[in-house]
């Protein structure tokens, strides 16, 4: 068989193998969707994202019109995250101890002439260990409505500086947001998280990130105008093992192509015909690598899974080439080539900023090696 015809048939083989890679990718996609679904279920059962509004005073009118918002509002939240597991799936959730304090304008309080209610709107999440509201030094028990907490304030209790405070524990997931007051507010959120992301109408005035610990502080001065909306933090899950496997499969065709060319060069240099069946079996081993990677990554870290799957695949193909051509040198050389390919792909998966640059350099080096190899064959 001429090498031109063999190259054509090897191209057809590559197409068939890529169809097999597509099947594995669909498997990865399906399991990733299941992972997302179960993670959402776990998070919702624990407590969804939490939005905490600053307390406000409302009249007893039927329309519940907001009468007063705090002129000073402080919120301190101490967050502790953890992972909950269900079978092989996981979700990151958190508990937070939240302390709210501040003051209403005493002059505006003095203008009120009827009993009012102070409301605290906390959207979603699950409140635990709710402390009474302290208003002007007096403790008032909170009552719960379907969408908010409220406490009645008799008109005689409104006299004073309008200081208030309360604290509670809350469970949630995905995000913790706090609404700033229209006047002066200070919001502090601290704790631990794998991938915290600060968000809101403004970025934190001060922030700190180190080894999973974080702190963020938003300060709004009374002299500022606008930008009084929500601020807070999102707890990103990060890149899942399924996403990493999916990304690694983008390099499947490159690995198959470079391996086939290496085997073809070996065949030409040694002047030993290698049947197409043997090529196909080598290609099948390269595709099976991704199935092994997917299986191991559901139980181990991605790095360890990649190492195990790569060692198994490289060992299999190295031994196969050794026995097929009865040459330890050829087998070990093929093992070295595959080690370089899988090692380079792992580095590409680990990098973000320089992935394209490194990938281009690797392909250039591979092309240069092939061109040099072709000159050796001609001789």
Question: Overview of this structure, please?
Answer:
The chain is α+β, with helices and mostly antiparallel strands. The protein is built from 8 helices and 19 strands. The protein has helices at residues 3-46, 106-110, 241-248, 252-270, 276-297, 302-325, 328-350, 355-378, and strands spanning 50-52, 56-59, 66-68, 72-86, 89-103, 116-120, 122-123, 126-128, 133-135, 138-140, 143-144, 149-153, 163-173, 175-179, 184-192, 196-200, 206-210, 213-220, 230-235. Strands 4, 5, 8, 9, 10, 13, 15, 17 and 18 form a 9-stranded mixed β-sheet that branches. The longest helix is centred in the first third of the chain and has 44 residues, at 3-46. The chain is rod-shaped, with a radius of gyration of 31 Å. The mean pLDDT is 81.
Give me the count of strands: 19
Beta content:
25-35%
Detail the poorly predicted runs: none
Helix content: 40-55%
Largest sheet: 9 strands, mixed
Number of helices: 8
Shape: rod-shaped
Distance N to C terminus? 21 Å
Radius of gyration: 31 Å
Q: Pairing-aware structural class of the strands and helices?
A: alpha+beta
Please, what is the average pLDDT? 81
| H/E topology pattern | HEEEEEHEEEEEEEEEEEEEEHHHHHH
Descriptors for this entry?
379 residues, alpha+beta, nine-stranded mixed sheet, five-stranded mixed sheet, 45% helix
Task: Describe the structure in brief.
The protein contains 8 helices and 19 strands.
Helix and strand arrangement:
Elements: H1 3-46, E1 50-52, E2 56-59, E3 66-68, E4 72-86, E5 89-103, H2 106-110, E6 116-120, E7 122-123, E8 126-128, E9 133-135, E10 138-140, E11 143-144, E12 149-153, E13 163-173, E14 175-179, E15 184-192, E16 196-200, E17 206-210, E18 213-220, E19 230-235, H3 241-248, H4 252-270, H5 276-297, H6 302-325, H7 328-350, H8 355-378
Parallel strand pairs: 1-14, 4-15
Antiparallel strand pairs: 1-7, 2-3, 2-6, 4-5, 5-13, 6-12, 8-13, 9-10, 9-13, 11-12, 14-19, 15-18, 16-19, 17-18
């Amino acid at each position: 068989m001429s090498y031109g015809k063999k190259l054509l048939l090897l191209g057809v083989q590559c197409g068939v193998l890529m169809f097999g890679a597509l099947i594995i990718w669909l498997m990865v996609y399906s399991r990733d969707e299941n992972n997302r679904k179960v993670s959402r279920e776990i998070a919702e059962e624990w407590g969804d994202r939490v939005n905490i509004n600053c307390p406000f005073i409302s009249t007893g009118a039927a329309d519940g019109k907001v009468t007063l918002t705090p002129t000073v509002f402080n919120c301190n939240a101490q967050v502790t995250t953890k992972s909950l597991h269900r079978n092989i799936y996981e979700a990151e959730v958190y508990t937070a101890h939240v302390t709210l304090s501040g003051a209403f304008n005493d002059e505006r309080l003095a203008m009120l002439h009827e009993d009012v209610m102070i409301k605290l709107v906390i959207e979603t999440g699950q409140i635990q260990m709710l402390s009474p509201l302290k208003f002007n030094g007096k403790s008032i028990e909170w009552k719960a409505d379907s969408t908010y907490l409220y406490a009645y304030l008799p008109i005689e209790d409104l006299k004073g500086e309008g200081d208030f405070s309360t604290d509670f524990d809350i469970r949630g997931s995905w995000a913790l947001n706090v609404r700033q007051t229209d006047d002066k507010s200070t919001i502090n959120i601290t704790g631990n998280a794998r991938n915290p992301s600060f968000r809101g109408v403004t970025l934190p005035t001060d922030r700190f990130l180190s080894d999973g610990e974080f702190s963020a502080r938003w300060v709004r001065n009374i002299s500022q105008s606008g930008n009084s909306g929500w601020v807070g933090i999102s707890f990103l899950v990060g890149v899942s093992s399924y996403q990493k496997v999916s990304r690694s499969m983008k390099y499947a065709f490159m690995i198959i192509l470079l391996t086939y060319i290496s085997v073809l060069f070996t065949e030409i240099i040694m002047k030993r015909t290698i049947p197409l069946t043997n090529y196909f079996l080598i290609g099948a081993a390269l595709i099976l690598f991704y199935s092994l990677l997917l299986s191991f990554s559901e139980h181990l870290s991605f790095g360890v899974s990649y190492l195990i799957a790569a060692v198994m695949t490289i060992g299999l193909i190295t031994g196969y080439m050794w026995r097929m051509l009865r040459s330890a040198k050829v087998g070990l050389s093929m093992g070295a080539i595959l080690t370089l390919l899988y090692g380079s792909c792992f580095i590409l998966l680990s990098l973000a900023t320089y992935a394209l640059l490194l990938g281009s350099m690797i392909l250039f080096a591979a092309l240069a090696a092939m061109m040099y190899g072709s000159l050796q064959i001609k001789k």
